[in-house]
Write a structure and sequence with these properties.
- The complex is a heterodimer of chains A (243) and B (252).
- The mean pLDDT of chain A is 90.
- Chain A has one domain.
- Chain A has 243 residues and is mostly helical.
- Chain A contains twelve helices and no strands.
- Chain A is globular.
- Chain A is 77% helix and 0% strand.
- Chain B has one domain: P-loop containing nucleotide triphosphate hydrolases (Rossmann fold, 3-Layer(aba) Sandwich), CATH 3.40.50.
- Chain B has ten helices and ten strands.
- Chain B starts with a strand and ends with a helix.
- Classes of the chains: A mainly alpha (243), B alpha/beta (252).
- Chains A and B meet through helix 1 and helix 6 of A and helix 2, strand 6 and helix 3 of B.
- Chain A: It comes from Acrocarpospora macrocephala.
């Protein structure tokens, strides 16, 4: 990791944690689902807290890291991005500085959601939860990079509505709220074409303590691929047009 | 300090190729203050962005502050400062912290960065603003913070894109003093664009005028004025070579 990326990550983290309210606010949707929908889900016979909390973590990742690109829209508007691009910091570190910050923020939010889950009745082994968090962080790096790539490509004003609209079907198709085992065949096929389904299923498997299942393998594979594609794409866009 | 030949930039747009810069030659010696003038859309900002590694030239060759623009853009970045048009800091950012991070990106260690930030702020009469957010500063102070950002790593060459646009006359005169001192005391070469001909006249050793992506004239203000006639002003020079008034452009 280059020093520039770490310098920037620390800087962005200080700025983000100055507004603790904002961190909580990004996590508010999964928290509301946990508190107001979780008890129903738990008694519905469809699944338990161990199935719901992994889904909410994916929802959280999409809402938090997935919308990270918004930060760069402001940096662009205030000329900050251009100023940073004239420094000798590598273009990759300009991206990774931000992405590292987003991953740490997501980690804090995920721990919050899991802790709350435990308070409500989640019973997952510590090892599974830790591995799950590692998977979530990998996913966050890919998602945030991808989000910056989109933010740097499309019209500034379009980013917030476009991204938040695109994330809703991705979240629903992942089976985050209700397991896809309930889905009709066409929806199941559609769901298998989206990346986050594999991560949700991997997390559910980890939360039940089975660490070597096929689901975990697929989830890790998809997360790693997503991370690589996201970072490559993000770096390319940070480099774009530079001499 | 700047040695650029045949620099061009063609943008591919939906309506076809647009030649924004069509083969400019720019030579700037060490320690010079050069004003870069031109009507809106003449290619001023694009040329600045080419020279500062923010845009990749379509063709040409250039050595900036001793480094090849094409082969070693990072080397160029290390030796130049660039203060863009408009803002360069977030209004929510704390001035001291933002400057320190900028200094660290140039490789300064934390203690060095802090000391250098204090030094540059003092140099620009900004002592005491470290703990304030940029949004709470006056327009003139904020512009000086922008310039401070470009000076932290002691660049040999400073690019200023319209440094005083939007400032009141007093802040403008104040900024001119700072820019002149940078050259006189520290030997910094300054290449700045402006919409104000009085600014060019007051500050620069030499003027370059660009129009339609080409350098249409260059020389010292005195040479250029003498070429037009007795009692000619830079406005007359500008009007003669571009067929337009710069002042109208400044308002537009």
């Amino acid at each position: 990791m280059s020093p520039s990326a770490l310098i920037l990550a620390r800087y962005y983290l200080r700025a983000t944690f100055r507004s603790k309210f904002a961190i909580l606010f990004t996590a508010i949707q999964p928290i509301l689902f946990l508190v107001l929908f979780g008890p129903l889900f738990d008694r519905s016979g469809v699944g338990s807290w161990g199935a719901l909390v992994p889904g909410l973590l994916i929802q959280l990742a999409l809402m938090s890291a997935g919308l990270a690109g918004f930060g760069i829209v402001l940096d662009q508007r205030f000329g900050v991005l251009e100023r940073l691009r004239v420094t000798p910091a590598s273009r990759t570190s300009l991206l990774l500085g931000r992405v590292l910050k987003d991953s740490v923020v997501l980690l804090v939010q995920a721990v919050l959601v899991i802790t709350l889950g435990y308070a409500f009745g989640l019973r997952a082994p510590a090892g599974g939860v830790l591995l799950g968090l590692a998977l979530i962080v990998m996913l966050a790096v890919g998602l945030a990079s991808f989000s910056y790539a989109v933010a740097l490509t499309i019209d500034q004003e379009l980013f917030p509505p476009l991204m938040s609209t695109a994330l809703v079907p991705l979240m629903l198709l992942s089976g985050a709220l209700l397991p896809m085992s309930l889905a009709p065949a066409w929806l199941d096929v559609l769901s298998r074409l989206t990346p986050f389904r594999y991560v949700v299923e991997a997390l559910r498997s980890l939360f039940t303590g089975s660490y070597t299942s096929a689901e975990v393998g697929w989830g890790v594979l998809v997360s790693v691929l997503f991370l690589l594609v996201g970072v490559l794409l993000g770096t390319r866009l940070f480099q774009r047009e530079n001499a | 300090m700047i040695h650029a030949i045949g620099l061009t930039k063609t943008f591919e747009t939906r309506k076809g190729a647009v030649e924004a810069v069509r083969g400019v030659r720019i030579e700037v010696a060490e320690g010079e203050i050069v004003a870069f003038l031109g009507p809106n859309g003449a290619g001023k900002t694009t040329t600045m962005r080419l020279l500062t590694t923010l845009l990749k030239p379509t063709s040409g060759t250039a050595t900036i502050a001793g480094h090849d623009l094409f082969a070693d853009p990072t080397g160029v970045r290390r030796r130049i400062g660039y203060v863009a048009q408009g803002a360069t800091v977030s209004p929510m950012g704390y001035v001291g912290e933002d400057l320190e991070v900028q200094a660290r990106l140039y490789g300064l260690r934390p203690a060095e960065a802090r000391a250098r930030v204090r030094e540059v702020l003092a140099q620009l009469d900004l002592t005491g603003v470290e703990q304030r957010v940029a949004g709470s500063l006056s327009g003139g102070q904020r512009r000086r913070v922008d310039i401070a950002m470009g000076l932290l790593h002691r660049p040999a060459l400073l690019f200023l894109d319209e440094p005083t646009t939007g400032l009141d006359p007093q802040s403008r005169a104040n900024l001119w003093g700072h820019i002149r001192r940078l050259r006189d005391d520290e030997g910094v070469t300054v290449f700045f664009s402006t919409h104000y001909l009085d600014e060019a006249d007051a500050l620069c050793d030499r003027v370059l005028i660009i129009d339609h992506g080409r350098i249409v004239t260059e020389g010292t203000p005195a040479q250029l004025k003498a070429g037009i006639g007795p009692d000619a002003t830079l406005d007359d020079v500008f009007l003669t070579v571009t067929g337009r008034e710069l002042r109208e452009e400044a308002v537009a």
